[in-house]
Amino acid sequence: MARFVALIVAFTGIFLTTLVWADALPSTKPEEVGLSTERLARATQVLKAEVAKGQYPGAVALIARKGKIAYLESVGQRDPAAGAPMSNDAIFRLYSMTKPFTSVAVMMLVEEGRLVLSDPVSKFLPQLASLQVSVPRFDPDTGKAVYALVPAERQMTIQDLLRHTSGLVYGGFTNHAQVKELYAKAGVDWRDVTPAEQLDRLAKVPLAHQPGAAWEYSLSTDVLGRVVEAVSGTTLSRFLAERIFTPLRMTDTAFLVPPDNGRPPGAVVPDGQGDGKADRAARRHRSAEKRCRRSG
Q1: Do residues 167 and 207 make contact, with C-beta atoms less than 8 angstroms apart?
Q2: Are residues 48 and 72 in the same domain?
Q3: Among 4, 42, 146, 193, whose CB has the most other CB atoms within 10 angstroms?
Q4: Which domain holds residue 164?
Q5: Whole-angstrom distance, CA of residue 283 vs CA of residue 264
Q6: CB 169 within 8 A of CB 131
Q7: Is 240 buried (19+), middle (13-18) or exposed (0-12) by CB count in 10 A?
Q8: What 3-state class would DSSP assign to 38?
Q9: Residue at a domain's end among 240, 262, 283
């Protein structure tokens, strides 16, 4: 059952950003494209059950096959506080699904010969040229881990950023104690800083691994976004809009929802504490985007 829920949520995340594309597709009965109305109804019940359990306030799921929409359902609420029901055209935050978009932007620049996968990142972001690596070892006298800083054996490359083998981490998620502490002290969390300040902070902290030596989900794609800006000479948001979203008619996909969009915002997943964390995160994204526009 958990696997089935994950599949439905995956469909939801993929298609929510492209409902304009969905509007252009004809609808059909599931049986016309080899699907089952009865079995698709199970998907609706699973989604409703997850909403009832409080896993998320609401969801929209779309399944298309052979160029036709066979299933499009919205369940739950898009605004639990106001009791507003979910709608098929609600706009949702994508969170880490921005990573594929940024990676596509990088590969477009590779195709155009403007960068190479083996290029050192410092070719475009000089601040990251001389990074150190925090290496833990076991101290038999104290029984604790101690850390030593050593030079990186090689520079991280564009490929390292794409595959999360750069040595960068997420400060809140990493198990590397010293790097976690240093990220917190340096403020490597992208809050209320300009793009230049982001890189300056990142340059002051060590890597958790030698570049290319280990995989760890990380800020690598954030740095890729800065590479895109450095190579293209424009902001990441503008590059994605002009080179990806507009050509693909993804008119409802952007860093910010325009004030005059007229479309309802999607449900904000509660964090379980009722402290508005998601809303504050959204405000930080908005203020950061404004600074990105000014710096670009």
Answers
A1: yes
A2: yes
A3: 193
A4: 99-240
A5: 17
A6: no
A7: buried
A8: helix
A9: 240
Distances (CA, A) of 256 to 3, 64, 92, 218, 289: 32, 27, 11, 23, 8
Residues 67, 34 contacting (CB under 8 angstroms): no
Annotation marks residue 36 as catalytic: no
257 in Cβ contact with 282 (< 8 Å): no
Q: For 102-143, what is each residue's pLDDT tens digit?
A: 999 999 999 999 999 999 999 999 999 999 999 999 888 888
Question: CB of 7 within 8 A of CB of 39?
Answer: no
User: Do 120 and 75 reside in the same domain of the chain?
Assistant: no
Residue 269, token pair as written in the block: 């997943």
Note whether 245 and 253 are within 8 A (CB): yes
Q: What is the CATH number of the domain that holds 142?
A: 3.40.710.10
Per DSSP, what are the bridge partners of residue 207?
A: 133
Catalytic residue from among 36, 74, 96, 122: 96
Q: Which three-class secondary structure state does DSSP give residue 133? A: strand
